[in-house]
Amino acid sequence: MSSGIGKVVALGGGHGLHATLTAMRRLSDEVTAVVTVADDGGSSGRLRSELGVIPPGDLRMAIAALMSAGGEHEPAGGRDRWVALLQHRFGGRGALAGHPVGNLLLAGLTEELGDPVTALDAVMELFGVPGRVLPMSAVPLNIEAEVSGLEADPRISRSIAGQVAVATTPGTVRRVRLLPPDPPACPEAVEAIAAADLVVLGPGSWFSSVIPHVLVPEQLAALKATSARRMLFVNLAPEAGETSGFSVERHLHVLHAHADDFRVDDVIVDAGSAPAGRERDHVERAAALFGARLHVGDLAQPGTHVHDPEKLASMVLTLCEEQTDGYAVGAVDRPPSADRLG
Q: Which domains does the chain have, with CATH numbers?
């Protein structure tokens, strides 16, 4: 798919970011993934505990997405065997059991080169993949949530620590924070956001993969200051544990509660998750909290709650080709707007 979109930065983590990156690589060869680094489960949890590295799992998945997506002049099949190798998990019952090859590669390169960003760049160079994968922070982070519904009195909240615990809590997550507080941003990620033509956030685990991106002060400042067009992709359905029972409107409200001065240009939702009528009107008002326009379309893979990369890419391309207030994405004469004040 040919497009005039220039540099794209995609923020998220896990399977949601994988879908976004697959879509964005259809539009640009200059895609940078900025990935959350708070995972404390499975192979990632073991490696961060034993080696002190940032959890590599979501970073590995982002690399795999950019490798497998291909580009306009690049058949995806050429790298399939290497993608499969990076994603391959060792079996058995020994020390390697459950570790993906890509996690071990990233951990080893980080120890060898002394820096996670250098290690990530080395992997991208090794496989000849355009773009970059960067951590949200160069230090491993922890998520702590305030959760209600775990006590007899529903007004009482309890603190739940750890991404896995937050994702699987039977209670209702009200708010999350990162530990250490005010964590350092990855300088390269901040630079990429400043230089971008398009910045996209979501979909993904809302409290553990999406909201953390607005909880790193330097990164939030970059998101507020960038001249890029900013798009927010909302999940197709509630996620068991983190957002059980959440409507699209509530997804937007809880993000706004964590960063009430964060602004985006476009909020993009699937038609099936925001039916026309009163419910969609509520979503439109929630989008306005970010200074954004609401865009609704058919974005899901049939019969699933997974974004279809081709449909997502098509909607983004359509929006970016539209003339809005006399400017287009990447235009140097883009006028200032109210959503960039403050």
A: 8-140+179-328 (3.40.50.10680), 142-178 (no CATH)
